[in-house]
Specification:
20% helix, alpha+beta, 5 strands, SH3 type barrels, 81 residues
């Protein structure tokens, strides 16, 4: 379900603000299943953004995934000192 009254542009702005921060994300895998991922947003492009996970894997998501809550940012982790 999309966020009422908000557009793709606002989802893009939110992602851009989180770039470079350590995040925990909840990603919908379909049929009621979801996965928690830890990583950080490493690149922001016009239609998609990429996330480098703690395992080193790089995954790509679209801003519509954020807009429709297929990808949710649960909590930011403080930067490691």
């Amino acid at each position: 379900m999309r966020e009422i009254g908000k557009g793709i542009g606002e989802a893009k702005q939110r992602v851009e603000k989180l770039r470079g921060l350590s995040l925990i994300m909840k990603v919908s895998e379909g049929r009621g299943k979801s996965t928690l991922l830890k990583g950080s947003i490493v690149a922001v492009f016009p239609a998609v953004f990429t996330v480098r996970l703690e395992s080193g894997e790089v995954r790509t998501f679209s801003y519509s995934d954020v807009h429709t809550r297929g990808v949710m940012f649960l909590k930011e982790l403080p930067p490691e000192v």
